[in-house]
Each structure stands twice: as C-alpha cells, then as structure tokens.
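Here is an idea for our session: we take a single protein and study its fold together. To get us started, please write out a protein record for me. Once you have written the record down, we can walk along the chain together.
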Amino acid sequence: MSVVLVVILAVVVVGVAVALFGWDRYHRRDSAAGPYKPTDEVFVDPATGQRTRVWYSERTGERDYRPD
C-alpha cells in the first residue's frame, strides 16, 4: 500500500512542477523559418555595440530578441 502512495505522490509532485514552471519553458522556440518574423526594430547596446533585432509571432503575439 505504501508503494502505491509513494508513486501517487511522485506523480502529483511532478504534475505540480510542470504546471507551475511550464513544460514549454524548456523547449526551444520556433526557428527563424517558423512563425517568428523579423521587424524593423533594432536595438544597439551602447556598451558593446551589439545589435539586437526584434522578431514577432503573429500567431502567439510574442516578441523575441535575437542578435542581428
């Protein structure tokens, strides 16, 4: 009986962790060929001079920042 309770407790703990932190959080986003499209917005870091372009997904409404 205690083995069954341990298994149920383990499943509940894993389920809660996935629900809180999100399974998709650890997967890579779609590639540049996917739903993300580059915008005209470019940011330049004054300290390093590195350019960062904003990519936008019309499907999800998310913005992603990638090196230009």
Observations:
- The chain has a mean pLDDT of 80.
- The first helix runs from residue 2 to 21.
